[in-house]
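hey so i finally got around to running the thing on that chain from the lab meeting. sorry it took forever, my laptop kept dying and i had to restart like 3 times. anyway pasting the input first so we r on the same page abt which one it is
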Amino acid sequence: MPRLDGGSASYRAVLALPHARNLFAAAMLARLCYGLLSLPLLLTLREGTGSYAVAGTATGLFGLASALLGPVRARLVERRPAALMRLALCYALLLAALAAVCAARMPTPLAVCLAVSAGICPPPVGPLMRTLWSRLTTDEAQRQSALSLDTAAESTVFALGPVLGALLVAASSAPAVLTGCAALVVTGFGLLARSLRRAPSHMRAAPATSARRRSPLRAKGFPPLLLLVLGAAAALALFEIAVVAAWGTVAAGILTTLFSVGGVLGGLVYGRRQWRGALVHRPLLLGAASAVCYALPVLLYTAPAAGAALLLAGACADVLLITVYQLVGTLVPESAQTEAGAWVSTAYNLGAALGTAFGGVLVDRSAPPTAFAAAVGVLGAVTALCTAGAPRRRGPAAGEAGPGTGAATTVAVPERESTADVASEPGPDRSGRCGAAAEPLWGPVEDGGPVAGGRS
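ok and heres what got predicted. didnt touch it at all, straight out
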């Protein structure tokens, strides 16, 4: 049975770490802009161009530029921390200019150009904050709690943000709310940059090493994690399209909210407990569990079954992301961990876009049950592919006891062990990397990784 951790890995203890409260609060404010943005941006472009088609296309190009260039921006901020505030100022100015252009009904090409330009500049906050948590925490159990708290907070912002954005647009106007988002960017990232300046120097930037220029995509075991994240996002998008087609927009809005609720609850429960079993196996198990959850409306085609599926799959999906963030610290050199976090976000956004497009075609050409089945098939196939790509274990994996500790050779670990201390010889160093007793998912850690500092 998992054990409740009320000591140094509790959420209160995590927030009591030096500089943690200020960084967490500033990051939440910075994230709020991203949570609010989608509806005000779309409606501002609609008001300025007079066309939902043009507004939708411009919003899509904004999202595409933001997702694809995310790793580039993260790499820039990782190497030059001062770039964070410069990106934030550029982003805020472009959003404010877009709001002014659309309010004045200026030429459509100018509005589209500003929207795409704004999509190039969003500064990283999630990947950066997860790297900072790695540098703040002192052991794996504490890091698990910190990442769980961070993911739950992020899920809450992105669940409530669109609702708040819609209320603000109804109370004023879309361009005014978009201008407010620009002000929120400057405020949130200004506070985050200020908190970083007050933090010790080792927290502000990765150490200068030869691994600095190595892409995280070259880290053995990291690309399969991205594939799993992409599959999970595509399955969710497929499922949500099917829910809208099956039971209408109003019911879909209520049902899809359950996914966020499940994600927040699942993340908080995961972070508060010490779990038996190897960390490296958890993403695969959670991917398979999510596929099983999505199968509920295939077996019982009712709205309550779809709601239960979304609630349970939400818990699995958020915990899957948390375990991926944990594994980034063991697979990727410290100097590339912020960029690696951005690649996770890019994989998720790309999966959601592909799933939405595929789901729309399926619903048009067949029926919602086919899309439900496709969600199960996509995630199941991706999970099976990643499982098949895992080589046979040549030694104890991370999360399992080494020889001579009395552990069985199965996946489970003894009751006394946790994810923080499962590899007793040699134990994890400050970077989160373990020695011979820890073989990460789909291969060993690349040489040249960090030996001091933090993990992400």
